[in-house]
Here is the input.
Amino acid sequence: MTTVRLTTAATKLARKGHPWFFSDDLATDAPQGDAKIVRLAGHRGEDLGLAFYSAASRLRVRRCGGWPGAAVPGPEEFFRERLTEACAQRAEQRAPEPRGVRLVHGDADGLPGLVVDRYADCLVLQSSAAVIERHLSCIVPWLREHTGAVSVLARNDLPTRRREGMPEEVRLLDGKRVEEVVIEELGIRHRVRPFAGHKTGFYLDQRLARQRVQELAAGRRVLDLFSYQGAFSLAALRGGASSALAIDQSAPALERASAAAAENGLVGLEVECAEVFAWLRTARRAERRFDLVVLDPPAFAKSRGEAEAALAGYRDLNRLALRLLAPGGYLLSCSCSHHVSGVQLEGVVRQAAAELPFRIILRERIPAAPDHPIWVSLPQSEYLKVLLLQRPCVVPEPPRP
Here is the structure.
């Protein structure tokens, strides 16, 4: 059995729930060699559960939860137990129609470095830890057997893999190659491209936000910024929006949005290929107004060092988007940057709203979909922040007698 012991300072962090440790945090290192599952101990030898260890990784140790007894389980036993528990927690997500669901959400499921998304009968994996990469032979067969998937592929085109000494790649792991699969959400059919779409093919984490847009959309003019394939626009039109304008820099993504609207029998979608910042400035000068604006930009902060510039970008976007709201209109403002906290995003929105000649009310904070659980010991797992803001209607005072 291999046990890795932390320093005194790192042990204090571990007791507070800290999940990751670097080489300087280790009082005793594991023998050099392949990535492995180890027991983690505090500086006095107290057991801290299991961890993934890799001498070649930037993060030397990643905690993966408790395990009964004092031994280290074999890889097959470990992954079988963890995958069984993760899939069981998503049992309520199963439905008769083909749908998308996240089966494994990394650290929050005790499987740091592993993401598994299911799109109908296709599974898409992302691996960013050496231990996961080494034991795909345990993971993939279990997943295929217990889900009935006909295709399992790796979307490992992640820059973080370079820091872990692993290549960026997209490849079929098992089964047949599937270029496109259809899922249903909120009564809408979406075509997902597992090998070529953004992330693993679709933004499953925004399910609750799309549902809220659908609920609010009736009779409203909707603006969908950074729309990608128009999932928010389609949800709005399904909810009865009078119109939806999707803005994105990707012409192919907008073509797929238009095709999806036609396939679903949804009328009222317009698309425009443009850079969002420039488009917003033009729309402001033209005094355009919308009743519901969705602002869902890509992650502006890929590292901690980019957080300050990201906050400036979010501030500008929110200021410009808020100015386009008609009285009574809503803004759904999102951030998926790990390095920008919810508190920071709300601070940016406050600053943007302070410059306006009208009030802005925070109506709701919308979490990620429940198949993307938040591990309370890892604030970064709450990477998605969604605020629902409203410009209230101005009710004229009754005339004085």
Summary: The first strand starts at residue 3 and ends at 6. The chain has three domains: 3-63, 75-181, 203-390.
